[in-house]
Design goal:
Helices cover 25% and strands 36% of the residues. It is an alpha+beta fold. The protein has a six-stranded antiparallel β-sheet. A two-stranded antiparallel ribbon has the order 1-2.
């Protein structure tokens, strides 16, 4: 199929660095002339590349097809904090604290998590009262590092897609209704005690979930 050749060429250009995130592709008409195909064939190729997260398309005077930033992965195979997961991917993690307060005997922390300085996730974490000392600490880094030996070692996470409400959209610099990935988490320490309950939302356009399955259990 002719559109497959266009896809392969653009994928290779992205892989070897000839096309970098933010680069604008030639117009559909130019690509059609270059490959001697119809604009419909070019449009089909670009739509498939967009569905794979390799391109983003915009309309209007400054519209076109642009190379997308690579998605950041959340690995469900091992439990670790977001700072550690981003570091594995060569991305600098940061945080902007929105609020820190004591509510009904628990410590509630709301933060915007940053990936290379850009909003990536909105975290709302709650810790037991014994961690009240967090109220006096710098919370712009990894909370799990601050907890030290009390940090959680395992968690149950429930994941579902949602649409951004007004508060979430403002915090993550998105439009209302933009796709998000909701992660509800309960995290436990080595003794089985609950250390954290959390409601995190991740930008859907920047996030990919990775999960390793166990071996097939035969009946």
């Amino acid at each position: 199929m002719k559109y497959a050749a266009i896809i392969a060429e653009i994928e290779q250009a992205i892989a070897d660095g000839r096309l970098a995130p933010g680069d604008r592709l030639p117009a559909e008409r130019a690509l059609a002339e270059e490959h001697r195909v119809s604009r419909m064939t070019v449009r089909q190729a670009l739509q498939l590349l967009e569905s794979r997260g390799l391109l983003r398309r915009a309309i209007g005077r400054n519209g076109g097809s642009f190379v997308a930033r690579p998605k950041l992965e959340r690995d469900l195979g091992t439990f670790s904090g977001l700072s550690e997961q981003l570091a594995r991917q060569g991305v600098a993690a940061g945080a902007r604290v929105l609020s820190v307060r004591e509510v009904d005997g628990a410590i509630e922390i709301a933060r915007v998590r940053l990936a290379d300085g850009e909003p990536f996730a909105l975290e709302r974490s709650t810790f037991p009262e014994r961690f009240r000392w967090l109220l006096e600490r710098d919370l712009t880094g990894s909370l799990y590092e601050l907890l030290g030996d009390d940090a959680p070692v395992r968690a149950v996470e429930r994941i579902e897609p949602i649409a951004a409400d007004a508060d979430e959209a403002a915090a993550l610099e998105l439009r209302v209704g933009a796709p998000l990935l909701l992660v509800d988490r309960i995290a436990y320490n080595a003794d089985g005690d609950v250390v954290e309950t959390a409601r995190d939302v991740f930008r859907g356009d920047r996030t990919r979930i990775v999960a390793w399955t166990s071996e097939l259990v035969k009946a």
